[in-house]
Amino acid sequence: MSPEPAAAQGVAQAPALLHLEGLAKIYSDGTRALSAVNADVRRGELVSLLGPSGCGKSTLLRLIAGLDQASAGKVRWLDDAGAGAAGGEAGAAGAAGTAGKLAFVFQEPALLPWANVFENVRLPLKLARRDRGSADRAVAAALALVGLEDARSAYPRTLSGGMRMRVSIARALVTEPSVLLLDEPFAALDEITRFKLNDDLLKLWHERHLTVIFVTHSVFEAVYLSGRVLVMAAAPGRIVAEVPVALPYPREGTLRTEPAYGERCRAVSRALAEAAA
User: Fold this and answer.
1) Domains in the chain: ranges and CATH
2) In angstroms, how far apart are the furthest CA atoms of the chain?
């Protein structure tokens, strides 16, 4: 089940887990992807980064994950949660192994086509040289979390887009992270599948006590999922607004038809329009 309203209120009082200070990214051709990004993320929070394409959302997420280096500023973890990244890409998984508490889910599942579901999810543990017995148990548990127990022997080419994304999420969860970074993971999916995976993500967030940073360009998705929405502007990318989402948990599909949800979507849309202007 999803979190109770009291749990969400507790998150609002939780200490900061991640501090971004003056973060900037300038590429070798002189392009300023990010400039003076400042933000805090609290432990146990689900926060969305929202903005138009090209505003630096993915770049910021990669800097947070340690998959790229900032040109200026600091990414400061206030405990060991960001000790390493694992998950959606073999390179990221291999670099960090299982020592870190941070996992990354990319927009494209990037599954190994020659490996079945079970072996794709086991990849981070294999690269970390985890013993086969404990790795297999961890994979089975991760597949159960995303409802893919019966698909363990299937190959990526036989799966729907939603199922492939579930495999990618399971591969991130198999390392038992405390922080989950998601880079527009549902953008390419149909609306029905996207709504279902939104609900599944909320359930995982609650059950695994995760801190989640979710990148999206959808106002409706950001409001449905998040306790806060950080709105970004482009050229250069920067955070220009913070919009709290004062909607209680648990959140279910019927929320999307309620006036309070529409009001929050309008507030975020206004902030996004101001950012674009």
Assistant:
1) 5-110+179-276 (3.40.50.300)
2) 55
